[in-house]
Amino acid sequence: MPIKKYYPGNDYDEVDIFGNNAAFLCPVENCGKVFITNTTRMNDGLKECPKCGKSKVTLQAEGGRGTKIVEATIEWD
Ligand SMILES: [Zn+2]
To answer: Which candidate among 13, 15, 68, 71 keeps its CA 20 to 30 Å from the CA of 39?
Structure first.
């Protein structure tokens, strides 16, 4: 399973991280859905691509729920 990590303060083409929010471009071939997630979600910063369900984002927050993102990881099939 490919995996990629992203960090705030970098200028990525396919990911944007802002405070406790992050937007991802799904890397799965023939998907390309843009979706957002944040650290305040009920499931603590976990989200699957709402279109294909084959990629999954995990957010690491600075402190508890709702705090700033320090690392964002996406894995996909
Ligand atoms: Zn997708």
So the answer is: 13
